[in-house]
Design the sequence.
């Protein structure tokens, strides 16, 4: 038996270890964290189930960013253009959840004004929410209802649309049925369902789409995506997830 010189053996082992570690890392690197620059949008490939069918916008500042159970925001993300929209809220304090990003805040003001002309008086319930606040809320829901139930109505930290500054929960000015299932039967919910898209908002978690969005029907939760995308989603009776599937098919 021919013995290999010790230095050669050590070199081979070191090279093999580096190759294996590097290959393993490339396999386990989640595509959500890797961006591809494009003049129109920024995308990465999603899960293998819909690979090359549903590119995901990973820039958290994009107005039409997709945030859901599968795709989250960077842990340190915080919008840099948060403002206080000039609309009534169910509370008076100038706190975090009263804020939204500038563009949706301005669109929200126009929508509230238009609703008022139609005899519909809306109020804000909860807008921007930091990842720290979302963690507190989610853990409280888990403690109360368990993980399985909480996941049907509450986002895990880093996966909440409220974290984007583009979403807000709304109600009627009296606060009756605020963030409750019965809000669906109110005139305020009916008005939002019919007109929100005209101002760039969508009902983010619509009825009958629970298997797609991952969340139960929330007629009070509206999300700003811009009038073009909102109108397309409204006209096709779809969701933001379906919009991306169709757009990039």
Sequence:
């Amino acid at each position: 038996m021919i013995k290999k010189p010790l230095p050669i053996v050590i070199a081979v082992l070191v090279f093999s270890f580096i190759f294996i570690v590097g290959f393993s890392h490339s396999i386990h690197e989640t595509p959500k964290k890797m961006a591809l620059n494009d003049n129109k949008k920024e995308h990465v490939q999603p899960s293998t189930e819909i690979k090359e069918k549903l590119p995901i916008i990973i820039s958290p500042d994009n107005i039409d960013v997709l945030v859901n159970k599968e795709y989250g925001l960077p842990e340190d993300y915080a919008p840099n253009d948060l403002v206080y929209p000039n609309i009534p809220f169910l509370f008076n304090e100038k706190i975090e959840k009263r804020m939204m990003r500038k563009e949706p805040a301005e669109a929200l003001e126009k929508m509230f004004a238009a609703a008022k002309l139609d005899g519909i008086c809306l109020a804000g319930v909860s807008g921007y929410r930091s990842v720290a606040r979302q963690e507190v809320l989610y853990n409280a829901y888990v403690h109360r209802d368990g993980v399985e139930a909480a996941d049907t109505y509450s986002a895990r930290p880093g996966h909440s649309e409220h974290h984007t500054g583009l979403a807000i929960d709304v109600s009627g000015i009296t606060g009756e049925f605020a963030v409750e299932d019965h809000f669906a039967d109110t005139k305020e919910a009916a008005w939002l369902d019919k007109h929100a898209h005209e101002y760039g908002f969508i009902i983010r978690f619509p009825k009958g789409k629970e298997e797609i969005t991952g969340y139960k029907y929330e007629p009070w939760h509206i999300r700003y995506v811009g009038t073009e995308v909102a109108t397309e989603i409204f006209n096709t009776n779809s969701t933001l997830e379906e919009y991306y599937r169709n757009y990039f098919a």
